[in-house]
Amino acid sequence: MNKKQILSKLGEIDDEILFRNKYSKLERYNKGKKVHKKQMEFHKCLKRNRWVFGGNRSGKTECGAVETVWLARGIHPFRVNREEVVIWVVSLSKQVQRDVAQGKVFSYLKPGWIEDIVMESGSKDFPSGGVVDYVLVKNVFGKISKIGFKSCDQGREKFQGASIDYIWFDEEPPYDIYRECRMRILDRKGEIYGTMTPLKGLSWVYNEIYLNEKEDQEVWNITMNWDDNPYLDRDEIKSLKSSMSEEELEARCYGKFSSSMGLVYPEFDPQVHVVEPFDVPREWFDTISIDPGLNNPLSAHFYAVDYDGNVYVIAEHFEAGKDVQYHADAIKKICERLGWEKGFGGRYDALIDSAATQKTLASSKSVCELFYDFGINANPKVNKDLFSGINRVKSYLKDAQGRVKLFIFKSCTNLIRELKSYFWGDNDKPIKADDHALDELRYYIMSRPEAPKVQKVKTEIEKDKEKLIRKLELKRRQPWN
After folding, report:
1. Hey, how many other C-beta atoms are within 10 angstroms of the C-beta on 472?
2. Is the whole model's pTM more than 0.70, yes or no?
3. How confident is the model at residue 19 (pLDDT cuts 50, 70, 90)?
4. Environment class of residue 97 by beta-carbon count within 10 Å: exposed (0-12), middle (13-18) or buried (19+)?
5. So what's the pLDDT on residue 128?
6. Which residue from 62, 182, 410, 429 has the highest number of Cβ atoms inside 10 Å of its Cβ?
């Protein structure tokens, strides 16, 4: 083989390497030394309404595109795959579709997997240069799946009538389109997944998905930020952070929702503070804290403390429109399930809002007295100072050294929801709404002993300086001076 033939062969090898790198992207996704753990957590979740809230370049759109191709091909590694599925990819506009979601999907599709491409504009021989209507994808079951591309600027009417298996929202859609899309997946028992940066503030997504106010068991979300993406350069991250305002960083880096009023507890991070339930040693059990309510919800949580002083919220009772006896029975059932130890007189000890000492209209006894009659010794001597209580809770969420000392079991959904949705209002006071669990959390945290103040150790120079000052002061006071 002469030199010319060798160079030609090397050129062919280079072309083959480039081709394989370009069209083996799916096989290389999250394989090797670098793995985007939160992307994989999203793929492994089996809920039917999954959302990723992520900053720009956090990897959110990438995992949405991979999810779409896996489902279309019938090769999803963590789900029961279906034959011949129909998927919608929904972008905010046709231009955004072409520049973002459409390009991402095609980057994971090998040419051999594509049966046909139907264009809305442009040529199917060069789909990246135009707007794709839909692409037909060969399914491993021998069928054909369809990935259709839609845009929100078409209006709700364009989303009517069809039956769809999966819908991917790339960025936050208008609420009417989201509701219409939910109808499209109904008869096929389909699924929705969304990937978005929360740039619209406290929109419907915040309430319905992030807070999950309706407590839909199929709703799930995760937040990604730049630090979660192992493929981003650390120096680039540092440079970008330094050029952004705090509000921009919240959304574009950390993928967090923001409000002009501001959260009372911005330190709360579900990825850090919410933990899976585990068997808590009984010697950790501390006490129960109650915020009473009859028409309003009564909130009660069970608190445990480990040997390092970390607080765990391990169970909750939260219900409205019931009498004291009903609540007492519900609390006692949780105590029995946990193996909670009884206190003096065979009653369970608890903290309670001091307002519980007042008589109710329906009884000659106070709420405290009624709880006592029903087997719970409710202590109303709690510190209700609002601002010092908020500051103490903040210090447990994250202290000055960045340490976390408060962990909440995932099953305590109402406390988690209230922490996410507690905002400052007028006159530098929190808005008095949906704070029942937060009130009794505050009572409990205020009952904890304060951490001892660290005594500063003085240096020898500081000690000598103090001695000199005392000598000079003593000399100044002498009557013969």
Report:
1. 10
2. no
3. very low
4. buried
5. 83
6. 62
Q: What is the pLDDT of residues 470-479, one digit of tens each?
A: 776 666 555 5
Which domains, from first to last, does the chain contain?
Answer: 32-258 (3.40.50.300), 263-452 (3.30.420.280)
315-366 confidence digits (pLDDT tens): 999 999 999 999 999 999 999 999 999 998 899 999 999 999 987 656 689 9
Residue 250 has pLDDT above 80, yes or no: no
- Both tokens of residue 371? 């709880």
101/154 Cα distance (integer angstroms): 17
